[in-house]
């Protein structure tokens, strides 16, 4: 209830006043359980996507948002719980699987789960390799995946920054949310635990998102780029070059 109240009375009117938000393809949304899989340019993607989708979207949110200390941490934790967001542990193994299991349960109840398949925000506006978690979730819950392309949110919040901008070239910033046609992976349901199948499904999801967002693609993980940038104090482009040079020739 808080989710819809905030959306209709506070967040929606505010964001429409501040930004020019265009939504394309809302009729592509299915009526039952489905995964909303989007590229991730800025934190505000998690604001514009719910505004574009008439139904509630339950995001698999970074678990750090639920573990903060002090008054601020408590406020953030309360907010994310109040609007129905689900903590996503990114450390891998059983903890990550438990997070995906919570998402699977919500999908089987007919809900919409929002997920950023690249696992983190893009460090430079480019698209990166999709992780297999989205495939495992789609196959285990047996639901379609709706690809979404976000365009312009990195103008509102530039890559690598949490700063908020309201104007570009003296005009309202335009954000476009493009909702693609659902992807059906039912042919793979009986092989949901096959790693090769998961990889193929994840790659197809990534390609569908990029077709909508029109981003340049870098076939490495965004998280690996960010780790290398921090470790060596280098740019995203330099980190990409190093990682690409370490891949077998067929991967590059």
Written account of the structure:
The chain is α/β, with parallel strands linked by helices. Helix content is 42%, strand content 17%. It has two domains: 2-218, 3-Layer(aba) Sandwich (Glycerol-3-phosphate (1)-acyltransferase); 219-252, no CATH class. The chain has helices at 2-18, 45-52, 70-82, 93-108, 133-141, 153-156, 195-213, 222-232, 236-245, and strands spanning 20-24, 34-38, 57-62, 86-88, 112-115, 127-128, 145-151, 167-168, 171-172, 174-179, 217-218. The strands form three sheets. A seven-stranded mixed β-sheet has the order 1-10-7-2-5-3-4, sandwiched between helices. A two-stranded parallel ribbon has the order 6-11. Strand 8 (167-168) and strand 9 form a beta hairpin. It is globular, with a radius of gyration of 18 Å.
What proportion of the residues is helical, as a percent range? 40-55%
Overall shape = globular
CATH architecture of the largest domain: 3-Layer(aba) Sandwich
Order the strands across the largest sheet as they lie in space.
1-10-7-2-5-3-4
Total strand segments: 11
Count of helical regions: 9
Residue fraction in strands: 15-25%
- Per CATH, what is the topology of the largest domain? Glycerol-3-phosphate (1)-acyltransferase
Oligomer: single chain
Class by SSE composition: alpha/beta
Low-confidence parts: none
Supply Rg: 18 Å
């Amino acid at each position: 209830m808080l989710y819809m109240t905030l959306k209709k009375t506070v967040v929606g009117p505010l964001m429409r006043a501040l930004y020019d938000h265009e939504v394309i393809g809302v009729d592509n949304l299915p009526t039952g359980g489905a995964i909303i899989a989007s590229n991730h340019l800025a934190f505000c993607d998690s604001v514009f996507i719910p505004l574009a989708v008439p139904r509630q979207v339950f995001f698999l949110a970074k678990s750090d948002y639920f573990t903060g200390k002090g008054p601020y941490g408590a406020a953030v934790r309360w907010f994310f719980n109040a609007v129905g967001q689900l903590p996503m542990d990114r450390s891998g193994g059983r903890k990550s699987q438990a997070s995906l299991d919570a998402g699977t349960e919500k999908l089987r109840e007919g809900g919409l789960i929002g997920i950023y398949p690249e696992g983190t925000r893009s460090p430079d506006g480019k698209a990166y390799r999709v992780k297999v978690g989205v495939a495992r979730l789609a196959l285990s819950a047996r639901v379609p995946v709706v690809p979404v392309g976000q365009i312009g949110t990195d103008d509102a919040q530039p890559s690598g920054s949490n700063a908020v901008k309201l104007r570009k070239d003296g005009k309202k910033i335009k954000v476009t949310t493009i909702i693609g046609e659902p992807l059906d992976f039912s042919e793979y349901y009986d092989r949901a635990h096959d790693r090769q199948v998961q990889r193929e499904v994840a790659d197809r999801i990534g390609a569908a998102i990029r077709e909508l967002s029109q981003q340049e693609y870098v076939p490495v993980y965004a998280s690996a780029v960010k780790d290398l940038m921090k470790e060596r104090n280098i740019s995203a482009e330099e980190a990409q070059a190093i990682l690409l040079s370490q891949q077998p020739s067929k991967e590059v």
